Amino acid sequence: MKPKILVTREVFDETLDYLAPHCDVESNQQDVPIAADALAQRLAGKDGVMCCLTDRVDAGLLDACPLLKVVANIAVGYNNIDVPACTARGVMATNTPGVLDDSTADLAWALMLAAARRLTEVEGYIRAGEWTGWRLKQWLGVDVHHATLGIIGMGRIGQTIAKRASGFEMKVLYCNRKPVAKEVEQRLNAKHVSKDDLLAQSDFVILQVPYSPETHHLIGAGELKKMKRTAILINSTRGGVVDDAALVAALTDGTIRGAGLDVFENEPRLHPGFLDLKNVVLAPHIGSSTEATRRAMAMTAAKNLVAGLTGKTPPNLLNPEVKRP
Q1: CATH 3.40.50.720 boundaries in the chain
Q2: Is 267 noted as a catalytic residue in this protein?
Q3: Which of 57, 117, 196, 296 is least enclosed, having the fewest CB within 10 Å?
């Protein structure tokens, strides 16, 4: 008898085709978000779930679904999953690292370039029919080339972001819980510094840390005041790493020049102050949103799920202390 699984959001046909020989699949191809209580009901009797960052998997859900053996997240981040609660109940939890590094790094750079050159402002200006001709001092932005880039979080995606900086001949600073290997620093031409030094020296600050209680409001009013008034902040990692209310205030009073944001606290709701500001570029959490990358993410999650349900070790197991079935 095939294990029963739930796929909580719409996925690609190829993903379902891969799952079908191995599992009895219930899939939410209507892509309607499932509320927490409804999710518990639909997972009752299921052996596995392919979920997304919009699905909260916590102790309460796990206790309501005692047959659950594998939770396969279609994301590299997994702050939506209580991994210790999974481990305590013998449930394997997995994510999709690696396949989205380049796409996410590209989006961070897109936000940085757009904020530096005020692209959302000038596009709105043209679409409103306000452009009447060229002027020397019109829509002045800031240079990215030869500037100092500060990266907070030097994991795979942080390193991929740093690699792109060489083409712009940027000085790269980074802070991390511990320095990366010397050969990596040399390859990326990056220097490890304290967070305070990074904030004080950088023209652009990109955040690339996972969200956790330790990184909640890693950037708040105090940190924003340590940045250059000409600096631009990029958050392409997770909402909650930045205190959005403090950022709105800093952008309003000129504490920093601008920001580019792909993630927000309490998304899809966002601080209404952002909508009144012209010096912020806004995107709806699309860091990994290219067709090739999202297909790869979904297939990676599917392979993790099938492995866990067929007696194998999932390639991207977050809690290896859990015994295989």
Answers
A1: 4-99+291-309, 101-282
A2: yes
A3: 196
Report d(CA 311, CA 45) in Å as an integer: 19
For this structure, is 269 an active site residue? no
Q: What is the CA radius of gyration of the chain?
A: 22
- State the CATH class of domain 4-99+291-309: alpha beta
Quote the pLDDT of residue 292.
97
Structure letter (DSSP) for residue 232: E
Whether residue 71 contacts residue 305, with contact meaning beta carbons closer than 8 Å, is answered with no
Catalytic residue among 56, 217, 267, 295: 267
Q: pTM for this structure?
A: 0.93
Looking at 9, 118, 223, 238, which residue is catalytic? 238
**Annotated catalytic residue: which of 118, 271, 285, 294?**
285
Alpha helices in 98-238 (DSSP H): 101-116, 119-127, 156-165, 182-188, 195-201, 221-226
To the query of whether residue 185 is one of the catalytic residues in this protein, the response is: no
> Exposed, middle or buried: residue 146 (CB in 10 Å: 0-12, 13-18, 19+)?
exposed
pLDDT tens digits, 218-253: 999 999 999 999 999 999 999 999 999 999 999 999
Task: Please tell me the CATH code under which domain 101-282 is placed.
Answer: 3.40.50.720
